[in-house]
Amino acid sequence: MKRMMAAAAAVLTLAAAGCGDTGGKRDGGGGAKTLTVFAAASLTESFTALGRSFEGTHPGVKVRFNFGGSSALAQQITQGAPADVFAAASPATMKTVTDGGAASGQPQVFAKNRLVIAVPPQDPGKVAKLADLARPGLKVVLCAEQVPCGAAAEKALAAAGVRVKPASQEQDVKAVLTKVRLGEADAGLVYRTDAKAAAAQVKGIEFAESAKAVNDYPIAALAKAPQPALARQFVGLVLSGQGRTALTGAGFESP
Amino acid sequence: MRKGLDARVVVRRGAFDLDLALAAEPGEVVALLGPNGAGKSTALRALAGLVPMAGGHVRVDGADLRPLPPERRGIGMVFQDYLLFPHLSALDNVAFGPRCQGERKAAARRRAAEWLARVGLAEHASSRPRALSGGQAQRVALARALAVEPRLLLLDEPLAALDAHTRLEIRAALGRHLAGFGGAAVLVTHDPLDAMVLADRIVVVERGRLVQQGPPAEVARRPRTDYVARLVGLNLYRGRADGHTVVLEEGHRLDTVDSLQGEVFLAFSPDAVALYRSRPDGSPRNLWQATIGAVERRGDRVRIRLDGPPFTAAADVTPGAVAELRLTEGSRVWAAVKATETRVYPA
Amino acid sequence: MTTRDADRPPGRPPWILVLPALTGLVFLVLPLAGLLVRAPWSTLGTRLAEPQVLEALRLSLVSATLATVLCLLFGVPLAWVLARVRLPGMRLVRALVTVPLVLPPVVGGVALLLALGRRGLAGRWLEAAFGISLPFTTAGVVLAETFVAMPFLVISVEGALRAADLRLEEAAATLGASRWTIFRRVTLPLVAPGVAAGAVLCWARALGEFGATITFAGNFPGRTQTMPLAVYLALETDPQAAIVLSLVLLAVSVVVLAALRDRWTGAS
May I ask which residue range the UniProt record assigns to the signal sequence (chain C) (predicted)? Predict the structure, then answer.
């Protein structure tokens, strides 16, 4: 009993200390400022690098990222999550934010992503082009049409006139990659950036029809940004030449 | 081939060590009597196959049961708190054994109904065990054990869980059923009265060993251990006899009517002890002076514990005598026992 | 009813218990209230009539029920072994049984792929020998749910077995019952309440399973898309629809559990 009380006391003390900490930061004691960026998961590598460089040019500023599925992020923003910048993987998700009046000014497209066919390294299904995905017996996984990568896949396949019977419609592009990586699927449609990030485990095959389903990535500073000036500056950095270099390095195309 | 039970039960568990030879003729009821922890129940459970034996044998009608698991031994067992299956009716509890023997449901139930009627519980056939009184549950347990028509019946403290009034009644009923049972029966009890009433032969067990056995009257008359002496209410001593005198281990000499030579037991009843405030005239032969160690009421008598030297003894007197002689703890009295009241038998 | 009243301890329940109890209840019920308040009641009817919703619901009920059956079939004997067999290393086995409880379900799904997938340890052999491929099938959904739900059943039944009076099993043995008969006619009836409670937990857990299912079996309407998967995807585009689906799942499970509970308590 005594031990339990001690443990409880320790937990309470820790919790109190934790509260004190964040309280100090929020107060900006010592002039430190925090910029909060909500960004699509596919931007993880490129934005982390840009954030570091932003901190370098803005002493005393800390950039905090919340990477996740675009629509989940959009939900959080419309429900009042404190964020300064939102970078989405599709104009549609950005639209739910701008429609709710949560963005300040017009969103700007800063990058484009296109689909590639991801296959396991040995390519057991012998896939070379988009039409191969319609071959009977081939296990193909796509994103569900409700998520941006699924919508893009549907558009590309429709444009090419290829009818695919997917084995599964996954909840996000990482899930498609997992199935391909483990060899459960013979092929899947993923973003070029994702294929690039997983280059060791999957092979990305470019296809011409992907031009019909290019995904625009819009970015916007948010109306209720706690740091409006920094938010504008960060958007500026992403749109700059330096930003472009970082993004193309990760597999994105310039708008 | 020897009919009935012929067993030697050897069980070792840590410091506990049980080694007991047991036999029972068909129709004979043997009571295992002993203090708590003596190993009576363990012996019974070993006979049933519920406790592994370190050695020995269990032969029933000539067949060795020791290699067999409990379910193939063909025995019947009545447990201390009956262990009726709570989810089955009284009837299905009794029908359980016959069903396991491969009888069809209807036939098993018919047989169970007969047994329930025999123990006088026909009208409780559909009752769940929870709804039965202690005495009724005991009878169902007995019927359940007998319904498998065992060659050996084991009863583990079958009356211990009953209150005094029910106990009397159920003991008599149990006695009738045991008398009607044709196989060998082994009954474990720590109550001498149960053993005396129900058993044809008593086996006294102490610390895992047989210390005395014989017909109930013999055991009651001639106890061979302090435990048995206490149970049957006698003062018991060991000594050396030389004709009509016995020198107790404690060193005192007592005169006796019986004439023996060598190592003997000497017993007398607490009723036979007379107490005097001062040295009596006419000097009975077996006289000694003692200190009163305890005074306690027992029914309409008073038990006086006499401490040594020369030896401890119990004396039973009337409450009137206690007042008259002012028998209080710590006081000194003279005690005497007539030679005709002593009993001497070889050790 | 009257006996229950008589059994009630005397006096007023102490506030030191009532207060945290109420807090706990509010904490559990408040999110439900959130769902109810935000539900688009006016369009509820039309949304429910969508064939995809009914299909997902049917699939959920069928797969959760099958998973529960599998859990009973394998979990009850496993619980018996854990409770009754005394061997060195049993402690470790018991810890292993609870692994799916601790494992994030998505990781569980990946683990299932690595074991039963096309390239998995056992899956490779299944495919080569029998041509059976489990991922992306309804069978895969059932397996994923079974994997995640089984510990609930095993733990519940094992607890009941440990609490059961072993001497009743001994009594049955002296009456000539084999171990299997003892298990069937004595042990199982004695632990029936524990088995029932475990099965309910198991079914509820299987019904709400998401992570392992979507990872192992994928998501395809009518084949592997259960209600939780449909809810998750609806959340991407149409949060209102997600709320409706959640409420349907909730209502169905509450009705089923309440009905079963009444039956069991009525029977005992």
Answer: none
